[in-house]
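Input chain follows. Return structure tokens only.
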Amino acid sequence: MSQLVRDAMVSEPLALDATATAQEAGAALARPDVRAVFVCDEGRLVGVVTRKTLVREVVAAGLDPVSTPLGEIAEPPNATIESSTPLTEAFAFLEDRDYERVPVVEEGKLVGVLSRAVVQRRLAEDEPP
């Protein structure tokens, strides 16, 4: 039985509502383990905010991080992948595009994030010795 993306994804990735502020995203991104914040509107993935996004869209633009909503500065995700995608297909997708991770959706709603390193480990475990 082949594994699916939902079997290897990290559930409940860090997500903030589109109405949350740039300051809230900045606080989350200040943590060393957080590289990106997913931005959702009623659970639907609308974009991604990184440290680079905050510098370019808020700091350099002279906007107030306390009053700037994430929905105005979030960048559309490069790609998403459905949770029902076979893991081997997902790995090829990540490899072809050289992505380290990709948001996982079900009917547009964010349900997880898939990491290439995790997929590599999962697929290696399945190979017969």
